[in-house]
Design a protein that fits this description.
7-stranded parallel sheet, homotetramer
């Protein structure tokens, strides 16, 4: 019997980190053949090209698709998705996968979902059913309605996917595969095993990290994109004020990314950020190790909600981006306002690590998902359950 | 105060017929400005170009978008959607509508939904919440998850949209606007007021219609597209056998359309269809008048489920296309099999007209929808209700 | 040393026939690796899908690209080209060819030329420098200006390419590769070795071919596309009138193709064509054998100008499509007018075969081109020679 | 008689500056109606959005087209062109222009040329026939082969276009419209009438300009794009060394732009550029005034070859970008090498202004071109002249 061909489409650096253990598990599975498609911002330098890490990690790439349209507005997001559909159709037509896997809810993942479902290729969706209260939510639930199999990350997510009219027989709480990596990191990292300045370069000051440090990662929020500059400035002011060793990560490509990036760049020119170092990107595992040893994470990254819950790292979650996502005890939510951010940082440092939570999984998601991909009946025909 | 700009995107002839009264009501509304966008197969001759009727009906067209990719496979449907997004984004960027309206569930309507929702333009969806059990259902419910306002056609549909997690305050059972036209036809057509052969040409025999006649309209079913030729042949055999005056309508463009069309063409060459006339297309109103005076409608068109319920015309509904749609007492469901089709035709003729049902509306949908478009708060930010 | 990767893009059935010997020669060449890309109408059934022949002939296909936009207007031609560029860029990005080869002058070949030249991949053009006086000419000469190597089919073509400012060191009169096949046919076909009705089906009468027969192949002319129906009717009238056994071939996809196709279909319905059989398509070699044994070819196909010169088959060339192309003694040019066509047919039958001409090559083009592709310096940087 | 509709497609800031007087002349002409289409990098902020200037100058925009694909490689240039064709076809289909005008030779202008010529819309090309010896040359001459009217900028260009097989009756040496503006500036600017730091912001030092200053504008060279960083560093070193007041302009979007931009950014971080100010962009007229009062222009901009010839400003032209373009006595050509650049700067300052040359026009191009657009016969059918 020939092996099932599983096409996984990676469109951004964080998605790659998130599903790396799924890719490994597919690759190792005797009945599966991995067809890895790398597209969108995962190919672009200025957002920290994921493709380099992918190749370094030893995954063969079946096809690359450049489809990010440039522009400082939302039109570009729509067009990027349109081009993605056009090109992924050709890719699927040539690769002939048995199942296509799409990850999470970035706008351009819709291209994967539409191409596969329109071509009657069974579609698996990783990380449906979550709630955030932004444009990602439209995308995420729409993809649920296009997908045939659902590998969700929490019980709450599972319930929601079933309420959305999906057949419960095809909704699986595997936990989030990002926790697989968090588990490995948690179990094996007594100390930070690399020097981030040496390994990743970056720009800015090089504060001493031995007494603890902050990590910042703040993305623009799609439906507030005209405010992204203002929002980032609030965080910059707060960080400037607390003046602790800080490692700051640039945002992903997105409508509004330029607001955030411009904001950071302008602030740097006008202020002396003598305790802040900026990184463009970092391998997922190294980033988790960095978090594991940090005092807290600040911003609006889903890493704070997810991996940090497992790691027990305190998180200052700013603004609406992770709005309604299920969260563990490690998260403090604050508005876009300087004082509350400063207070939350002080609190986090004072309290220190919190108890590990398996709300987003127990670290075996990759293997479980691969096994399901090997066993599930191939199907692309479904109907709403009510 | 300036009028709200309402962009309605029409992508196929039947969609135009369905929402014609909405377009009129928008055009007449003092607070609204209609921006009519005509795209996809609505522009193509070989499927009965809707654009001619639109212009004849006096609607000004704000933009035309050719985006149908040619091909006898499902890849073409995906690509058509991708091109649609790419181009509709530009159209919306130039027209700057306050609300975008998308109709029903054809695959390419997803392009309208994605372009609008990604560009933060409030999206209204007409005819969500229905159940059919085919690929259209994936599209339909995915669009529900992208839309901000829902104008549904029945109570069942309304319940489903709310179950899908939508805010009940923005789900309105306006009935289907196609019933508006059916109402007008029902109230004003004592006899068939035109000669279809003269007015619409077409090919084949010209049977005498004065003693009653059958109407056939059978589309390919997307997820069974390799069977579309076999399916159409069964119907052709049955019609050939009952040998009553029959008016047959060609199918719309769709993956598999070529199977259906080829089947009809081949059958015509090999058989003497002395009682069958073929039409490429017909204005919506004329088609309803034709149905109103027919013995029954045969095939899988949604017109049978919807307008015929109101008109009280018996319908032989073949196969899975309208699978789980709510239906009135006028519908007899049969499989793709010759004998059952023949028996159902005999039954329908014997019983005659059935009682009018308002299951899909009471004939005032157009005006209601326009009024809602004028009054609803403009919003594009939503979250799932559970 | 690794073999040079040569990507040849085939976009239509006639282009495939034309360069088949080039493909074979590349495949056989020890220093070359063939990357065959099949796109546009070469993939579509309704124009006689070339892809089936390609696979039957044993060529492996590296990528397929569906990019034909449907529409009865010239916009579709432009859009097909745009989509072609978008997708071929991805294909080239993934295949990483050392040289890209584009064939002749169909509108969509421009997509190949632009994708390759913009990506700094050396571009070889087969059949530049010819003159026809239609839109093809704009395309053909524009491609010459994008190409780095020119494999032309006649001395006249070579002179023109050099006059266009190209470096004479990279302009090679290899003859047309279609003559390679004509040579083989001419040397090996004492009698027609197959029954065309049995082998190719088709529709219409099945006239006896043993006493001679006519072959018709008439394409729409791009810049006269609104006249294509009128033009085809003139030819149909003439063929109807002379009433000799006739084998008629459907036209290729093209803006206006529908005018030609519709004209043929309508004429068939209204006339008794008891001596005419219609074919959708035929393998290149079989078609040449059919021509070799025919009385004459009628229409506007370039086969009449090119292969028939070598075969010595009389040709009635109608209208402007081959306007200024160099031609042998076998060609009689006539206008779109019934009487002259009838007279020319009578003359052709009376005179019989003419002397073979090598104006378009001596039958060794394929091997020569492959050898040049293996030897030429790789370059994509050029400047006009004056 | 209705006015002729002239669609001009502007895809970049410098193209807009170049043809501004043509746009004005069309707008003022009684028999013409201007349809201005703004696309590609002309819409993007990070390259100095031309669209703002266009609107400020009072031109109404008929359509905007976002089509720049993001990417640090040449694939993006090809794809940008493909998307441009797709979208411009729709734009032309909706605007129905009588003539389309395309400007110069940037890669994406090919999209305008293909969309128009494939749709049988007469195409006018401004600035064909020039020689530069880079990828632009492929584009430029290919567009000449697609265009129906040629408005060239010099006698040398006219000769070349005619040699390319174009009908001399449709090749007009109107001079370059950029000289129209240069003429106005030359005649009316006794002193620099604005403070560039105040009016345009920018970053870096603010050297005193009253004793003279240098202007630098260096673009990446498409077919050397991997070297663009190295090349820009040589210039940076030289400017750093001569240490005179310098105004530096960022490059346009282009494959390789990131190499140049990155090079500048990195150099700034590592060196003290106390005499250099950086501008993102400047209105065309202000830029010419700045040049008019400068000591010399350094880099590879065509402004140096063209407007500076008329203004009599010395130019240090670096590298291959303007390779074979006709030039006046004001130009000194140097290689990518620090010492020669430094020497040339010294020489330029010592010699001072040179005599004005009308090699690229006498300042009346805009009015002449508008008049030709009003009078030329509408045609889209041509054949090579040999």
């Amino acid at each position: 019997m020939s092996r099932r061909k599983i096409a996984v489409v990676i469109t951004a650096r964080p998605s790659y980190s998130r599903v790396k253990t799924v890719l490994s598990a597919i690759q190792k599975h005797a009945d599966l053949e991995l067809q890895l498609v790398v597209a969108a911002s995962a190919l672009l330098d200025r957002y920290g090209s994921a493709v380099n890490y992918i190749e370094k990690d030893g995954f063969a790439i079946a096809a690359k698709v450049f489809n990010v349209l440039e522009g400082e507005n939302l039109t570009a997001a729509a067009k990027t998705t349109g081009i993605g559909i056009l090109e992924l159709s050709t890719v699927f037509d040539n690769l002939k996968p048995d199942i296509v896997v799409t990850v999470a809810d970035r706008f351009e993942t819709m291209a994967t979902a539409i191409a596969a479902s329109y071509m009657n290729i069974p579609l698996a969706h990783i990380q449906g059913g979550e709630v955030t209260g932004n444009i990602d939510e439209k995308v995420r639930h729409a993809i649920t309605k296009l997908a045939d199999y659902h590998f969700v990350a929490s019980e709450g997510a599972k319930e929601r996917v079933v309420k959305l009219g999906e057949n419960p027989n095809f909704v699986f709480n595997t936990g989030c595969p990002s926790i697989d990596l968090a588990k490995e990191v948690k179990e094996n990292s007594a100390t930070l095993p690399f020097n981030p300045y040496e390994k990743y370069g970056g720009v800015g000051a090089k504060p001493d990290l031995s007494k603890g440090y902050l990590v910042v990662m703040q993305h623009p929020v799609t439906n507030e994109y005209q405010n992204s500059r203002k929002h980032i400035e609030v965080t910059l002011e707060a960080i400037c004020k607390v003046n602790l060793p800080t490692l700051w990560f640039w945002p992903n490509v997105d409508a509004g990314a330029d607001g955030t990036s411009t904001g950071i760049r302008a602030f740097r020119e006008q202020h002396d950020l003598s305790n802040v170092h900026f990184f463009k990107n970092m391998e997922g595992k190294d980033f988790l190790q960095l978090l594991q040893h940090s005092d807290c994470l600040i911003g609006n990254s889903s890493v704070g909600i997810r991996e940090c819950a497992y790691l027990g790292v305190p998180v200052i979650n700013i603004g609406s981006r992770q709005n309604r996502r299920d969260r563990g005890a490690n998260v403090m939510d604050v508005d876009y306002a300087q004082a509350p951010i400063e207070i939350a940082i002080a609190t986090a440092i004072q309290k220190g690590k919190v108890k590990s939570s398996s709300i987003y999984g127990n670290g075996k998601a990759g293997v479980q998902i691969a096994q399901l991909l090997a066993e599930l009946p191939l199907q692309f025909h479904k109907t709403i359950m009510y």
